Amino acid sequence: MQKYEPNSKTRKNAHIGSIEDYKKLYEHSINNPEDFWAEQAERITWFKKWDKIWEWDFNKANITWFEGAKLNACYNCVDRHVDAGYGAKTALIWEGNNPDETRNYNYNELLEKVQLTANALKNLGVGKGDRVCIYMQMIPELAIAVLACARIGAVHSVVFGAFAPDSLEARINDSECKVLITQDTGVRGTKNDIPMKSNADIAVKKTPSIENILVVKRTGSPIEMVEGRDVWWHNALASSDAECAPEEMDAEDPLFILYTSGSTGKPKGVMHTTGGYMVYTSTTHHYIFDYHPDEIYWCTADIGWITGHSYIIYGPMANRAVTMMFEGVPNYPDFGRFWEIIEKHKVNKFYTAPTALRALMKEGDKWPNKYNLDSLKILGTVGEPIKEPEWLWYHNIIGKEKCPIVDTWWQTETGGILITPLPGVTTTKPGSATLPFFGIIPELLDDEGNVLEGNEVEGNLAMQRPWPGMMRTVYGDHQRFFETYFEKFPGKYFSGDGCKRDEDGYYWITGRVDDVIIVSGHNLGTAEIEGSIGGHPSVAEAAVVGYPHEIKGNSIYAFVTLRTGHEITEDTRTEIIKRVRADIGPHASPEKIQFTEGLPKTRSGKIMRRILRNIASDNIDDLGDISTLADPSVVSSLVDERI
Ligand code: PRX
Predict the structure, then answer these.
(1) Could you say which architecture CATH assigns to the domain 107-244?
(2) Is 331 known as a binding-site position?
(3) Is there a binding annotation on residue 363?
(4) Which residue ranges does the chain devote to CATH 3.40.50.12780?
(5) What is the pTM of this model?
(6) Whose alpha carbon is nearest atom 11 of ligand 1?
(7) Is the CATH code 3.30.420.10 the one for domain 520-640?
(8) Residue among 394, 434, 523 whose CB has most ligand 1 atoms within 8 A, to mutate
(9) Which of 618, 598, 599 is nearest to 607 (CA)?
(10) Which amino acids does the record list as binding Mg(2+) (predicted)?
(11) CA-CA to 309 of 20 to 30 Å: which in 233, 455, 598, 636?
(12) Residue intervals in the chain for CATH 3.30.300.30
């Protein structure tokens, strides 16, 4: 396999410019973790320094960083840059869904808006520790709302704007949010009236904790406003005071909750705290994107996911980056949109998902070739394994062979990037996330938990020790935190991913080894989808698996058994799909539905998903051992009737 060295120009300007320097700092971070993290923590402005760098016990899932320290995340992202004289510098560039819509906020303007919003929230009775749910599309007010919550010490819970009312309701109820922030309707690609407020109205019918809904006017489409409960954002800001002092938060006070899919139908509220998260996101953003002042940095993720939290808002803004956010989609108005935006704003650092690259690559080189992409210096990917064809396309056609690619591996739970190349350091191999970041000790474990030493091994990916950005608990359910991440391999953090280490010690993520399927970079729990399908009155049982998909990485295949006497009709199929879209959201719809008389089960009644995965992926020559099935005969009909 061909390897790609960082070019000499990148190396020369990089914060770290040689593998020797990386190794030196890595060893320092491992041998003297307390010194290393105390040094990195200097990036953050603390109101009071910590008493202790870290304390942890993975056997109890207890982790603290910078205990005793005081800080405010919003102050670190906004105020201190104004105080240092950068108020007139651009903080946020917003590119709207339609190409003629752009808005820029400098740090002065951002501070002004954030303070007004913070006071508007206070006027609605929101205080330190209260939860605020944010359900929006990618408009600037989303970033402002997040920062305003951080400013007053309210815990934000951003729910991705494509989620259906039921999913929104479940997330609001789990953390008992007091206020919901949304917008009238949304625009995204050819959709110009996404029903945000009316979805919110449906959700809040069953969320007793919500006292008010704050509504941003994005489109002006008519919506219902409930007297006494619903407040227009612009009115609330107009009657707010201009000044709002940032709350002094403890390092271990919660900053946000973000829900992710798990092995049960109930989403997990991943909780991150303040001090460690800020240190980790700013440190990783600095080194991995090799950020230098005034560079234009664009992460295409949605703020509804962790990538948007850590690498659109907190990391870059703590580093006084010019950070961009984009409301639209890569194929609207045409397949050149990303490249047009890069040319228009002279983007230097670009961070996107493999699924977007695959979709764009398929449309041919003519789209990127129409635009001047000379401003690009570093390219990043995240969210799922990148395969060689799209890696090479990214390298050759987008990066013109001069931009290092950082394939960054991490998770909602990790808060920031753990395994990644560094642009001025790492010789890359397409498809490998390469080497651990500072302070990170990855381990590969066999199923019994034995550590696989040396190179050329494959196993379960775990971390030997904590890092400042890792999650601290599952909101309201510390036992679930322990069981999900620390029980299977005692004393380690288990990621749920499989991974190989090659002959050079490089890491290659092989995908999830649990019941999570990653579709177009979105994590979906099989249990959640099965629960939704199972809610259809004709359905007796459903099992959902992933199968490889050219663009989405994986797609969803559902095996469905109907209740006796219920007939299979085209309507049943459509209704099932509709149901999943309504319960979870369009991103969770099954691409294929196979109706079957029975599912492959062990004698104890456990569905053998391995067999279903093989059938769905068309690997029918090697289904694996079927002798332990209660009724092996179901397999042949499943194979014959596969779609
Ligand atoms: O399976 C891994 C995959 O995405 C999972 C985490 O998903 P989520 O919590 O939604 O966070 C996505 C953004 C950080 C991981 O367990 N994944 C993430 N990055 C990569 C990846 N798989 C391969 N290569 C990556 N670079």
Answers:
(1) 3-Layer(aba) Sandwich (3.40)
(2) yes
(3) no
(4) 8-74+256-511
(5) 0.93
(6) 411
(7) no
(8) 523
(9) 599
(10) 536, 539
(11) 233
(12) 520-640
Q: What is the pLDDT of residues 24-69, one digit of tens each?
A: 999 999 999 999 999 999 999 999 999 999 999 999 999 999 999 9
Contact between 329 and 188 under an 8 Å Cβ cutoff? The reply is yes
Cβ of residue 310 lying under 6 Å from some atom of ligand 1: no
Domain 8-74+256-511 fold is: Rossmann fold (3.40.50)
Structure tokens at 491: 């004393």
Tell which one of 312, 351, 497 to mutate to probe ligand 1, the residue whose CB is within 8 A of the most ligand atoms: 497
For ligand 1, pick from 355, 509, 510, 587 the residue to mutate: most ligand atoms within 8 Å of CB.
509
CB contact at 8 A, 103 and 140: yes
Give 561-586 as a DSSP string: EEPTTPPP-HHHHHHHHHHHHHHT-G
Q: For the chain, where do the domains classified as CATH 3.40.50.980 start and end?
A: 107-244
* 243-302 tens-digit pLDDT: 999 999 999 999 999 999 876 768 899 999 999 999 999 999 999 999 999 999 999 999
| CB-ligand 1 contact for 423 (6 Å cutoff) | no
Nearest atom within ligand 1 for CA of residue 516: 1
Alpha carbon distance 616, 567 (integer Å) = 23
Q: Is 597 annotated as a binding residue?
A: no
> Would you call 519 helix, strand, or coil by DSSP?
strand
Asked if residue 383 has its Cβ within 6 Å of ligand 1, the reply is yes
State the DSSP code for 474: E
Q: Cα angle vertex 386, ends 553, 92, to 5°? A: 100
Rounded to the nearest 5 percent, the helix, strand and coil shares of the chain are 35, 25, 40
Ligand 1 center from residue 412 Cα (angstroms): 8
Strand partners, 132: 156, 179
Burial of 329 (0-12, 13-18, 19+ CB in 10 A): middle
The reply, when asked if residue 613 is annotated as ligand binding, is no
For the beta sheet containing 442-445, the strands, ordered from the edge strand earlier in sequence to the opposite edge, are 442-445, 457-463, 493-501, 507-512
Query: What does the pLDDT average to over 345-374?
Result: 96
CB–CB of 65/49 below 8 Å?
no
Neighbours of 289 (CB within 10 A): 31
Tell me the backbone φ, ψ of residue 382, rounded to 5 degrees.
-160, 155
Structure tokens at 634: 């179901």
